[in-house]
Amino acid sequence: MNSGAKRRCGAGAVLLCASAVLAQTAAEPHVGYAHPAGLQQGTTGEVVVGGRTLQGVTAVVCSGRGITAEVLAYTRPLTNQERNKAREQLQQLEQKRRKEALTPEETATATELRRQLAINPRQQPNPQIAEMVRLRLTVAADAVRGAQDLRLLTPAGLSNPLRFEIGDCREHGEREPNDQAADRPAAELPVVLNGQILPGDVDRFVIRARQGMHLVAAAECRALVPYLADAVPGWFQAVLELYDAAGREVAYADDHRFAPDPLLTYDVPADGDYVLAIRDAIWRGREDFVYRVAVGELPFVTAGADLVGACASAVPFAFGSWPEVRERAPDGGGAQRVELPVVVNGVVERPGEQDVFEFAGKAGDRLVAEVLARRLGSPLDSVLRLSDARGRELEHNDDHPDASAGLLTHQADSWLQLVLPADGVYRLVLADAQQKAGPDHGYRLRVGSPQPDFALRITPSALNVRAGATAVFTVHALRQDGYAGDITLELVDAPAGFTLGGACVPGNSDKAQLTLKAPPVPGDAPVRLQLEGRTVIGKKEVRRRAVPADDMMQAFAWHHLVPADEFLCAVLRGGQAGVRLVLHDDQPVRLPAGGTAAVRLDGEGRRPLPEGLEFVLRDPPAGIRVAGARPGNGGVTVELAADGKTAAAGMRGNLIVDVFVQRTVPARDGQQKPRTQRNRLGTLPAIPFAIVAR
């Protein structure tokens, strides 16, 4: 952060250390995996959740109904000092045991010490998933099948979500060691196999199959933990292998079309025992390499997308308001004539095939053409080319990213938009960029005038805020067909006491940081919130609900907005003492380019403001800084400055200001002099701003 982004009020300000802000996030609980990652309806089982900052779990929060939980134990890695102490204590108990019987309490202590000191030679220390909470989960018989979001609630707040599956098939957890001698699930198929892959691990299971059986093994790995920030390619890339009784490999799968999770199918030629093996494609592994493999004669729609629940599959399905036609090859070849607007449903069936469509257009008409294929589960990697009546190419597109498709890593659908230059006939060509084809390479092609619209995403999907304090979150505007208007935001049916700050995504931006002020009284359970965006497009008011999501990093670099089921807020106890300031005026601050503007903040209550307040812009927009701060009359006036170059007229958005205070801590025994301590007191409500001409 540049030095101009912070100013002090009173004496004793110091430079902002990055860790002072990052610590606010690092203290929140984070979960990285659940093992097993699902249970059968009507059963009870133990589940281990790994992550960080998990001490003192008070509740398990699930997005659906039918799951009850009991917290059994919490463990964390021992420090070197703790390990030495535990080893000494265990040695003392062992010496006593040689002389006399241990009490039941001493026996239990010795068992726990051995468990804490046990070292798995394949385990790779990872502080992100080093802590573990052991749960006992009970799934009701009528619990809804499919995935739920599972979170842990601690005194430090609510964790991010984990996908937890509820199925109707029998579940079997791997029994180690099963690297060489295969594990034998006790009963007949179908079954869901649960396990973890550690470094170099291969898990093997004996599958008893009958002649004529169409065996399906469908893995869920990336579907459970979509993205790993510190691993390449950014997820557990599983491989399935099937061997016959003689040890010959008879089937293999390392993906399902473009989806990373493998799907293996095999027509069984003879009764017998077969061995199903699962491993990582490049022999990696660690605790968050968890898997679920549904095995049996299962209903699985091979032209679809992801496995849903334990023993079934589903396909995405799209519909719209435009007329729909089927792609067909005209007699004698050539182009298929269509009337706009239209949605064409087609298939690229042969390698090198090009589907060609002709339509009439007028000069000045705005045209949009969009392919929905990969987002609907099709392996088609589309490319679009538009040409005029003389064959001149006017526009083409291969891949057009869609931030709403947070689980896609190869954005392979095409989109183009242009103004038609003249009256006449135009030709649109659709093909596969990789020259691949087949009956599963289906698509929906939308062609017509632009349909401006928007969708919203909220990150993160859970907010943790002290009672009466303010939390910061981001709203992402996913704009369709060039829509560039302002989007006004509001809470829908929120409980009393919640206040939204900076409730607008400006038309010149695809995202905005907002604030949420919590009620002054802490809650016993997280609150479910809903956010809605509204605008006027043409003469019609358009409202869209915001979808909660989490900004997840893949392989050290790429970011994805992964949807969650709910937008939650945990209002925590232990509100921060100190400053509580509110905006004197909620109208946008008009900040002259190359000039300054003042923002008045009034203190809540009659308590005087502390000495030495420091106001720091969080993620400041380029060219904007805090130029000064003046206390007085029970509040403070913060002066903002814009450089007039990078912060030019027309820029709009919200400013997020963190408030810090520096105090002197008296010297203690062994210290030669007093030391300074810098504390974050909180965050101001979002300050809307607009850069105007000076």
SSE order and pairing:
Layout: E1 6-9, H1 18-26, E2 30-35, E3 38-40, E4 44-52, E5 59-62, E6 67-75, H2 80-99, H3 104-117, E7 131-139, E8 146-154, E9 157-158, E10 162-167, E11 170-173, E12 191-196, E13 202-209, E14 214-220, E15 238-243, E16 249-253, E17 263-267, E18 272-280, E19 290-296, E20 307-308, E21 312-313, E22 324-326, E23 336-337, E24 342-347, E25 354-361, E26 366-372, E27 382-387, E28 393-397, E29 415-419, E30 424-432, E31 442-448, E32 453-459, E33 462-466, E34 470-480, E35 487-491, E36 499-501, E37 504-505, E38 511-517, E39 527-529, E40 531-537, E41 540-554, E42 558-563, E43 567-572, E44 581-583, E45 589-592, E46 596-603, E47 613-618, E48 624-632, E49 635-642, E50 652-665, E51 675-683, E52 687-692
Parallel strand pairs: 3-10, 11-12, 22-24, 23-25, 32-41, 33-43, 45-52
Antiparallel strand pairs: 1-47, 2-4, 4-7, 5-8, 6-7, 8-9, 8-10, 12-19, 13-18, 14-17, 14-19, 15-16, 15-18, 20-21, 24-31, 25-30, 26-29, 26-31, 27-28, 27-30, 32-34, 34-38, 35-37, 35-40, 36-38, 39-43, 40-41, 41-42, 44-46, 46-49, 47-50, 48-49, 50-51, 50-52
